[in-house]
Xyloglucan endotransglucosylase/hydrolase (Hibiscus syriacus), 328 residues
Amino acid sequence: MGYLLLVLSLLSVFVSGFGKRLPILSFDEGYSQLFGDDNLVLHRDGKAVHLSLNERTGSGFVSQDLYLHGYFSASIKLPADYTAGVVVAFYMSNGDIFEKNHDEIDFEFLGNIRGKDWRIQTNIYGNGSTSVGREERYNLWFDPADDFHQYSILWTDSQIIFYVDNIPIREFKRTAAMGGDFPSKPMSLYATIWDGSDWATNGGKYRVNYKYAPYVAEFSDLILHGCAVDPIEFSSKKCDTTSQSLELSATITPSQRSKMDSFRRKHMTYAYCYDQTRYKVPPTECVINPKEVERLKKFDPVTFGGGRRHHGKRHHQSRSSRSEADTI
């Protein structure tokens, strides 16, 4: 009976508006502190969590349960001002259990120098396939440090969809050729803030400057809605039926697809499928979109195969002049 309730609620969610009708958990109901001691602070009776990074340590939390498929979401407000080298992550992983063949589904937020925008990166690993690297990177149509915005992961047996404010920004479908490279083992949900100075901003050129610390990432509207599994047996009788029904809920409507295509056309700055410096032949799961190829060639002609770089001046529209209607 429990899986029927889950299925019905998920169907309702995806028909009427992503995540709006799902229960929001307090911290103690679904999470535990991962690291950071006093750098994790609860607010609003546990409905909001602040994670901070200072010279001493970062911080993070983790779900109390392991999940096999589901919908996972949080509203996040990122640190402002100079944030170079800072990494905020909202992701699923089982690396603590499967050290050599772990699965992972990532939202990573990469800080920047003053006056430059935060960047968002998504990534997917299955069965320890970290050498492939399935990264995509994007700019956003808003300043994620100004206010809270919702970031969500839908994970089913056959696909993964990333959402920003209920707009799908990436759809990743399982293919037979991938084998075990598609995440298929139970995972926990994590949220962390940490020092990624060695790589996060311009390949490590700009590092965390602790003069601006503490860096505080704020989390609220925490949603864990999926199939919790036994942490020892990694199984649950209701998971198979739940996963099959989740597939019905994961259909992207024509309106949503239009918004996703618009977002990717205007805001995607990197996609591994088109990186000719890494892959002479795209990985088997890649679906090539000619419009995305052409845009990325203009953005980075060396990486994406359009020829030599051009060093002419480029016009940048100010963020204040943009609106969601213009950019999505």
